[in-house]
Design a protein that fits this description.
The complex is a heterodimer of chains A (668) and B (196). With 668 residues, chain A is mainly beta. Chain A is 9% helix and 43% strand. Among the domains of chain A are: 297 residues, YVTN repeat-like/Quinoprotein amine dehydrogenase (Methylamine Dehydrogenase, Chain H, 7 Propeller), CATH 2.130.10; 137 residues, Cupredoxins -  blue copper proteins (Immunoglobulin-like, Sandwich). In chain A, the strands form 10 sheets. In chain A, strands 6, 7, 8, 9, 10, 11, 12, 13, 17 and 18 form a 10-stranded mixed β-sheet that branches. In chain A, a hairpin with a 2-residue loop joins β35 and β36. The N and C termini of chain A lie far apart (112 Å). With 196 residues, chain B is α+β, with helices and mostly antiparallel strands. Chain B has one domain. The longest helix of chain B is centred in the middle third of the chain and has 31 residues. Classes of the chains: A mainly beta (668), B alpha+beta (196). Chains A and B meet through α1 and α4 of A and β1, β2, β5 and α6 of B.
């Protein structure tokens, strides 16, 4: 009897355990899932070079970063929109004007996207462009020096997000307003008059084909929607530009709800060749604005900032046949053209499909006026008439698409955290691979060009959670490298990134490496305060300004003893690095200065401004380990009280003035 | 004597009933959510008198699809469930003390009814949450609802949702199963007596 009782108890226990067993079929977190040969595929032996440069946006760091692929090694952080005390960027007198805007000196911004210069639709390795999302600007980085060469502010704009995408011969980079704003004479309007007073613009910034110089060529004024991303047409669609936009509801508050109501928003198709003609024909109006144009002069090694006062604006409504709105499901984000230029992929971030539009059909619809009414006076193309097809059930939260050379597209999915590979022509999903976690942008080397190099796709993720050793609440951001040479995508490598990576491009090292500058030649140094030789080193007083024309060469500064500076003086150290040897920068720092260091490349001159606040003797030294006697590369500057009679003197190697015997320590 | 339970059975009924006290100190049900960006998972524990776990994080995510904000005061069940459990405990004790087979049968019947009602109620709430969505929600997938699973696994957009009893719930299930086992045992014992 007892026996049977225990039998039934046993049965109950078994049942319970079986039920409990259901709980253990939950997913396991933190997969590694790397391909077996991943290590061999990403290993770049010590002393060997990577195959690609990966130029990655720094997001809220405001900078651009340079990695090697496939190793994922970080080589350089290029200061662009944010000050960088390590490199003196925004601290040295020469670089301060680079961060000037119509609002004055702005020390920070948010760099989202990269555009590498192109010739005939292919990378030419000359410049990298980046956008400032907060105070609208575009920067041009010289790929010979990996330094910011120019920063142009964009007038009539806010939230410069759909930028700086580039045309196939680098004719233009663009800027679109993520925030529409009031324009014209009266900017002080109630926010709830958004629909009447707020306008959007897309700006075309011409790029000089020889020196890269940027200029706001023209702006197109449009209804007040939020432009999000953009891509130039290429090949057959060259001459056109496509901008995705959301908030066609034109909401000015609680956009997460109010800008998500309509079933379809738009992609703006711009015939920029025609717009160019209209501008030439004088159809634009000149509007009074204020924006800064900052240019770095490599000869004087200094920046100048000029405030511009005028911009040419074409009103979309008054100039028909330059813009058309193309319906695109649910708040489109990415808007990417395939290598042939025929297909435009829209990624509605809340949409259940990925629509692919056909450039040929767009042209037919325009020719036949197959319109679906208009939006604020701008023709809206009929969705079905311009659609090549939709990718069905691709994933959740499509954001961006890159392409390989074999007709495949790679789309990132934020919500379902994956990359999905699909065929552009037949729209069939071919493969999907998870990312860790919540991918934003992605990059295929040469992906936005007419000839993608393929080989890898890199995911730039928004969340890392458990992927790395934790570092408190603030965790590293990351990129992930996948091999796309086979049918199936294979995860090869995770690597941490600076700031928050948004868009990135990758370019073969062979296009960049041979042009990389090693030193600045002293004979080309036209800096007005350069001391081109130790004989030129000196200290001069101009009123209450003391200018120190200093040289630095292994392993001393000249002068390294300075006296006769008084409180109330402002001291300018113009330090010239006399080295003409590769990889011998010198640094310069002084105790107590409310400033950063200088980091001076061979042949370069940089200026540190210092207003001493206390009398005393202040040490200064070289901060970049330059030689065996780097630690000896140091000096002093004496600051005397205001009204002191200490004469101005300077020296290196001898005491000036000569030491008084009485001051020497007594000897036995 | 025929109508009385054996001493062993009465002790076991008392034990099963006493075990129900766990329902006051342990969560009875749990819902787990996993998504790629939530590898560690999100958990909501349901107690007889409230909720615990990552409720606020879950609410934060749910607002994208227009689900109602989950809070304890919207469930009247949490006010009377402790009394219901208390009632079952009293009834169980009555069975143990009296040793009445009839009471045991009533008790078992009430367990079945109570369990069914609880699951029905749980289903109703899940249905309401999954279907009555804010029409102005940002993410709207046509024809898609987000009713959480009643028991087991279900895929909801990027989330894998799992719904299972929690520790307290397993104790209640175990106690109920024990009560049923006792009845089977008694039935078996009596059947043998008759045949002998």
């Amino acid at each position: 009897m007892k026996h049977s009782f225990f039998k039934s108890l046993f049965a109950v226990t078994t049942l319970s355990l079986t039920l409990a067993g259901f709980q253990s079929c939950k997913p396991k977190g933190g997969q590694s899932a790397a391909a077996g040969d991943a290590a061999a595929k990403t290993y770049v032996a010590p002393g060997k070079y990577d195959e690609f440069y990966n130029i990655v946006s720094g997001g809220f760091s405001g900078q651009m970063s340079v990695y090697g692929l496939p190793s994922g090694r970080l080589f350089r952080v290029i200061p662009v929109f944010s000050v960088d005390p390590e490199k003196g960027w925004g601290y040295s007198e020469e670089t301060k004007p680079m961060l000037n805007t119509s609002h004055g000196f702005v020390p920070w911004d948010d760099l989202h996207h990269i555009a590498l210069s192109q010739t005939k639709g292919e990378h030419d390795g000359r410049w990298a462009f980046g956008n400032a999302n907060n105070t609208p600007r575009i920067a041009r980085i010289d790929m010979k020096t990996f330094r910011t060469a120019e920063i142009l502010e964009i007038p009539n704009s806010a939230g410069n997000h759909s930028s700086p995408f580039i045309t196939e011969n680098s004719e233009y980079v663009v800027a679109g307003t993520r925030f529409s704003v009031p324009m014209g004479d009266n900017l002080d309007v109630p926010i709830n008059t958004y629909k009447q007073n707020f306008k959007g613009t897309v700006s075309f910034i011409s790029v000089d084909k020889d020196n890269g110089g940027m200029k706001v060529a023209f702006q197109i004024e449009t209804p007040g929607v939020n432009y999000d991303l953009a891509r130039a047409g290429k090949g057959k669609s060259h001459g056109w530009f496509f901008f995705s936009c959301y908030n066609s509801e034109r909401a000015n508050t609680l956009l997460e709800v109010n800008a998500s109501q309509k079933d379809k928003d738009f992609i703006l198709c711009v015939n920029w060749k025609k717009a160019e003609e209209y501008v030439k024909a004088g159809k634009g109006t000149k509007k009074a604005v204020k924006y800064a144009h900052n240019v770095w002069n490599e000869e004087t090694q200094s920046a100048t900032s000029t405030i511009e006062n005028e911009v040419v604006v074409l009103n979309a409504k008054d100039n028909p046949d330059i813009v058309y709105y193309m319906p695109c499901p649910k708040s489109p984000h990415g808007c990417d053209t395939d290598p042939t230029g025929e297909y435009i992929v829209g990624s509605g971030k809340l949409a259940a499909v990925i629509p692919v539009f056909s450039f040929t059909k767009i042209q037919q619809a325009i020719a036949n006026k197959t319109f679906d009414g208009d939006y604020e006076g701008i023709p809206v193309l009929k969705y079905d008439a311009v659609l090549h097809g939709e990718v069905q059930k691709p994933g959740l939260g499509p954001l961006h698409t890159e392409f390989d050379a074999n007709g495949n597209a790679y789309t990132s999915f934020f919500v379902s955290s994956e990359i999905v590979k699909w065929n552009v022509k037949d729209l069939k999903v071919l493969d999907r691979v998870p990312t860790y976690y919540s991918i934003g942008h992605l990059c295929v080397p040469g992906g936005p060009t007419v000839k993608p190099h393929g080989k890898y796709v890199i995911a730039y993720n928004k969340i890392t959670k458990d992927r790395y050793l934790p570092t408190g609440p603030e965790l590293t951001q990351s990129a992930q490298l996948y091999d796309i040479t086979g049918e199936k995508m294979k995860l090869l490598l995770d690597f941490p990134t600076i700031g928050e990576p948004h868009y990135a491009e990758a370019i073969p090292a062979s296009l960049v490496m041979p042009n990389s500058k090693k030193i600045y030649k002293l004979e080309e140094n036209k800096h007005p305060q350069a001391a081109l030789g130790e004989g030129k080193a000196r200290v001069e007083r101009k009123g209450n300004e003391v200018h120190v024309y200093m040289t630095a060469i292994r392993s001393h500064f000249n002068p390294d003893n300075i006296e006769g500076v008084k409180l109330g003086d402002v001291v300018y150290f113009h330090v010239t690095n006399l080295e003409q040897d590769w990889d011998v920068p010198h640094g310069f720092a002084i105790k107590g200065a409310d400033n950063a260091e200088l980091l001076i490349m061979p042949g370069e001159t940089s200026t540190l401004k210092w207003k001493p606040e206390r009398a005393g003797v202040y040490p200064m030294y070289c901060t970049d380990f330059c030689s065996a006697l780097h630690q000896e590369m140091q000096g002093y500057i004496r600051i005397s009280p205001a009204g002191s009679s200490v004469p101005l003197s300077f020296s290196t190697g001898t005491n000036m003035p000569a030491a008084e015997p009485a001051a020497a320590p007594a000897q036995k | 004597m025929k109508n009385k339970l054996s001493t062993t059975s009465r002790i076991l009924v008392a034990f099963a009933t006493g075990a129900l006290v766990c329902a006051f100190f342990l969560p009875v049900w749990r819902i787990d959510l996993f998504a790629p960006q939530y590898p560690e998972g999100l958990m909501m524990n349901i107690w007889i008198n409230g909720l615990s776990g990552d409720v606020e994080i879950i609410n934060g995510l749910n607002h994208y699809i227009g689900m109602k904000h989950i809070s304890v005061d919207m469930f009247p069940e949490f006010k009377f469930l402790p009394y219901v459990v208390g009632f079952y405990m009293l009834l169980g004790m009555l069975v143990a003390v009296t040793g009445s087979r009839k009471f045991l049968l009533v008790y078992l019947g009430l367990i079945v009814i109570g369990g069914a009602l609880a699951m029905y109620d749980f289903y109703q709430w899940g249905y309401d949450y999954g279907h009555n969505l804010d029409p102005s929600a940002a993410i709207q997938v046509p024809g898609f609802s987000y009713q959480p699973p009643l028991f087991g696994h279900k895929r909801l957009l990027n989330f894998d949702a799992y719904s299972f009893p929690d520790v307290g719930g397993w104790v209640v299930i175990g106690a109920s199963a024990l009560a049923f086992s006792i009845w089977f045992y008694e039935w078996y014992r009596n059947r043998k007596k008759v045949s002998a």
